[in-house]
Amino acid sequence: MFRILFFLAILIIPAIFSWWLFVPLALLFVYLAKLPYEIILAGFILDMIYYFGDSFLAKHLLTIFSVILIILAFFLSKRIHWRKVI
Predict the structure, then answer these.
(1) Among candidates 76, 7, 5, 9, which has minimal Cα distance to 37?
(2) Are the C-beta atoms of 1 and 8 separated by less than 8 Å?
(3) Which of 6, 10, 38, 77 is the most buried (most CB within 10 A)?
(4) Best CA proximity match to 66, nearest among 31, 82, 42
(5) DSSP secondary structure string for all residues of 29-44
(6) Model confidence at 85: pLDDT above 70
(7) Nearest to 70, CA basis, from 17, 31, 44, 12
(8) Of the candidates 45, 1, 75, 50, which has an alpha carbon nearest to the alpha carbon of residue 30?
């Protein structure tokens, strides 16, 4: 239940205030939920809302950041003992 609420918060808060809030919220979500694949969808939706440029990296900036964050969390989950909070 908390994952769904945090997913909605990670969509609504950056959409209302600014795109840069996605970065700390995504880091917090990875810390709390360990491997939240929902941030990839949130990054994709926010990439459609915000315009960063015309290149591939600029069009998909938040999606690429969230995919890299999930890959990093996946590799670190084997080395670090994370307590799953949500």
Answers:
(1) 7
(2) no
(3) 10
(4) 42
(5) HHHHHSS-THHHHHHH
(6) no
(7) 31
(8) 75
Which of the four pLDDT bands, split at 50, 70 and 90, describes residue 35? confident
Are the CB atoms for 22 and 46 separated by under 8 Å?
A: yes
Cα separation values, 35 from 14, 40, 70, 75, 81, Å: 20, 11, 6, 10, 13
Whether the per-residue pLDDT at 39 is higher than 90: the answer is yes
Residues 35, 42: contact at Cβ < 8 Å? Answer: no
Rg (CA), the chain: 13
Give CB contacts under 8 A, 24+ apart, made by 11-20.
Answer: 11/42, 11/45, 11/46, 14/46, 15/46, 15/49, 19/46, 19/50, 19/62
31 pLDDT band, cuts 50/70/90, is confident
